[in-house]
Amino acid sequence: MAYKIMLDAGHGGSDPGAVYEGRQEKDDTLRLTLAVGRILEDNGIDVVYTRTTDVYQTPFEKARLANESGADYFISFHRNSSPQANQYNGVEVLVYDKSGIKYEMAQNILGALGELGFREIGVKERPGLVVLRRTRMPALLVEAGFINSDQDNQLFDEKFDEIAQSIATAILGTFNEETVEGPVYYRVQTGAFRNRENADRMLYQLTDKGYPAFILQEGDLYKVQVGAYLQIGNAINMEQRLRDDGYSTLIVTK
Question: Mean pLDDT across the stretch 208-236?
């Protein structure tokens, strides 16, 4: 199947969310949502949004929009907060329950953000949240650090592009793990290694340069691949970019 994802920027309009020294959660979430969405769209994903501007929506409206969109997944972005400034720090991902592909995706996103320096709080069940309870598709809510943590804000600002890239890559990597029938996707492979450390090294190089790379394990080989495209032309364009950057490449299908 061709994937369709609804991305939700938490809060908005008259609801700023958490606020810290003039910084508003609704602004950080919108910026992150749009950045992740652009990367997913560049990789052939059909992305829709609950909001792309500063408007207010109730959680029930967000869930309704998701259900009416026919999306296969719903991902909501937030920033956490604590009673006192700099009391806590770290990222967590919330799900209705710890089952199915939503839990796998949550774990992948959490791990990807942990690699950027965030403390990993964990994946937690929150069945009471409307956007997780009322949505009909797999849904998760990403708490991208504490907005009243100077440490998390520094990471959020200084590594913003890497954060968006890591989240998008984790989502794409989760799709790669699914064992369902679907269309042919074209991927650009940059290496196949028997040693996981060598694959990790290439993965870090690629993601540092902004490529949507991931590792696929097949048998005793760790294959480093970039992108997942429905159109061969997009894969060819990515392959040329990688070759111009000095990588040996091969277009594969899955």
Answer: 84
Q: What is the pTM of this model?
A: 0.72
111-128 pLDDT tens trace: 999 999 999 999 999 999
Number of residues that this document lists for the chain: 254
Distance CA 73, CA 105 (A): 10
In the structure, what pLDDT confidence band is assigned to residue 212 with cuts at 50, 70 and 90?
Answer: confident
pLDDT recorded at residue 183 = 56
- Give the residue carrying structure tokens 């989502």: 171
Amino acid letter, 144: A
Per-residue burial over 20-58, b if 16 or more Cβ lie within 10 Å, else e, is: beebbbbbbbbebbbbbbebbeebbbbbbbbbeeeeebe
Write out the E strands in 72-203.
Answer: 73-80, 91-95, 120-125, 139-146, 186-193
**Collapsing DSSP states into helix, strand and coil, what is residue 184?**
coil
Strands 46-49 and 120-125: unpaired
Tokens of 21: 């020294």
What amino acid occupies position 43?
A: N
